[in-house]
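Hello support,

Our group uses your service weekly, and this is the first time we've seen a run hang past the timeout. The protein is Type 1 glutamine amidotransferase. I'm not sure whether the cause is the sequence or the server load. Input pasted verbatim:
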Amino acid sequence: MAESEPADARNKRRDSVGRSSGETFDALLAKVAPGARTTRIKPVDTASELPPRQELAGYDAVFLTGSPLHLYKEAPETRRVVEFMCAVFAAGTPAFGSCAGLQVAAVAAGGSVRPMGERREAGFARRLHPVGPGSGHPLLAGRPPVFDAPAIHTDEVAELPDGATLLASNAVTRIQAAEIRCGDGVFWGVQYHPEISLFEVAAALRRQSDDLIEHELARDGDAVEKHAAMVEALHNAPDRRDLAWQLGLDEQVTVPERRSIEIRNFVDRLVLPTRSRRGRG
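Update from on-call engineer: The timeout came from a worker crash unrelated to the input. Re-ran successfully.
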């Protein structure tokens, strides 16, 4: 479990939702793959000890979390996390990433990331749809032709690297899901956040309140809080059809098992078959 957010961002997230991005993934994997053992590492931290390539090859999977890092900015943190992903590709260990995790994998394989400018996906990515091979790709198995998902990001993948396949898109962000093959490795990733709860969506909106106001998605802090409170209320009472209607959400978001289907597909359709072929089945 590679936490690609800097220490201050991890602490800020813990203050608002009680856990870091890696801990959120851990909690979900405990349900998706009961009995699985995880190791959490921090590739962006200067003093962090990272597994060598040989050790990475011994893991069944690597997960990359979201992060506020900007991959198009040269910095020690971005170099370290990209170098880590290069090692994962070289080790041949299947990997999954959401949001910045997709961006890290794209850059490590030779693609590029850019800021979104005035555009935003704040709270939810709307009208996501498979494109090209995505319609039959196992990452999106079980998703309907059009769906929504939790999302909040200010950067996006600009260009996928050679050896990558675009799987899903929408009107705001062209590269919403992709498979990236590099060296011996294969990565499945999404720009949205199938791992987070509606409670965490509400907290993210509150943390980014100033940005939402600046980009005219909300008139003021009270408007952000009203919207976040509605999302949090739906988390607490997922059967409230009135809240789902007001937020324009359906069971693809409100039901946890459907919201996290990409991660379940990654485990069931890529990790477990690969594990079996590697002699650990």
